[in-house]
Amino acid sequence: MKKESSRLMSILLCFIVLSSSVIASTLTIRPNSQGSYTNWLNIGCSSGNGEWDCVDENPANNSNYLYAYTANNKESFNFGNVNLTSEHIYGIELFYNAKRYSSTKYYLWPLFKINSTDFTGSSLYTGGTSYVLRSKWVQKNPLTKSAWTVSDINNLEAGMKLLNYPYAGAYVSQMYINVDYDSPSAYPDLTVSRLTFNEYNVVNNQTNKTYMRGYVYTTIKNAGLDTADVSTTRIERLSTEDRSTSMLRPTKTQSFSFTYNCTAPHNFIVTADIGGVITESNEANNVKTVYIDCVI
Predict the structure, then answer these.
(1) Beta bridge partners of 240
(2) What pLDDT digit, counting tens, does each position of 213-235 carry?
(3) SS3 for 48?
(4) Which of 130, 159, 182 is the last residue of a domain?
(5) Under a CB-based contact definition with an 8 Å cutoff, are residues 189 and 280 in contact?
(6) Which of 140, 156, 182 is the last residue of a domain?
């Protein structure tokens, strides 16, 4: 296979719609050197450090390929630096042009090696007798449990593995990764867009005692340009509780309401994304407070 000397990887830029109002870019990266593992067998390329040459073509060349049918066999590749700086990485999608090894062996598992630690993704079914493109989306770095960074992508080592499973086995003739990203300005921005309250007296008909109730209504809004993943909203009043906030596309909202006995003056504080799991364009507008005096 001939390769241009200047090509470290094949990069394809295209535009895809990730949300109702955001355009993101996709960068395709392909193996450009061998990684730490060379356990898969090869047809049509050099063994050892040349095995990446069996799976880097575009389009796929099914006359050269890697295959394995033995438990714990691993194969990994390097992908080289990408031409990104501070972009926001939504996630990566690993693609395998694959088919089953036999009628009883037809699974493979995505493999990452990050800071000398191996991570295995969920299984991919390769049950057909002909090559079919299969993929696995990985939103976060499995080591850090956080969004991928440009540095993560630049140092990425990935490939495939067979687990100790009776149905493990596959042929792979092509492997590449799509990196979905946006400019730093195209981030989500979770805000507390509304926080209102009412106080009212309630009479207990059995004891004839009057007590005060508080009713609070609050809304979390994504005021940014990109979809916000699932997060946690913290509610602090006379007690503290956390509420799960669903994925929010730009301009979308989620509301919460609370009714409780108002026994003492207090601040009612709402904090969006209390765990800081969402990378936002503005991290300083996640909190809103209202003082409730418990007096009508």
Answers:
(1) 236
(2) 889 999 999 999 888 999 999 99
(3) helix
(4) 182
(5) yes
(6) 182
Q: Over the stretch 83-117, which tens digit does the pLDDT of each residue have?
A: 898 888 889 999 999 999 999 999 999 999 999 99
> With bands split at pLDDT 50, 70 and 90, how would you rate the model's confidence at 46?
very high
**Whole-structure pTM over 0.85, yes or no?**
no
CA separation for the pair 88, 85 (Å, rounded) = 9
Query: Within this chain, do residues 197 and 164 fall inside the same structural domain, yes or no?
Result: no
CA 91 to chain centroid, in Å, comes to 5
Tokens 């904090």 correspond to 271
Say what the pLDDT of residue 12 is.
32
Structural domain that includes position 125: 13-182
Q: Amino acid letter at 129?
A: T
Q: Is 255 exposed, middle or buried (0-12, 13-18, 19+ CB in 10 A)?
A: exposed
DSSP secondary-structure letter at 230? Answer: S
pLDDT, greater one: 30 or 87: 30
Tokens of 95: 């693609």
What count of Cα atoms within 13 Å lies in the side-chain half-sphere of residue 184?
6
2 domain-assigned: no
Tokens of 127: 């049950």
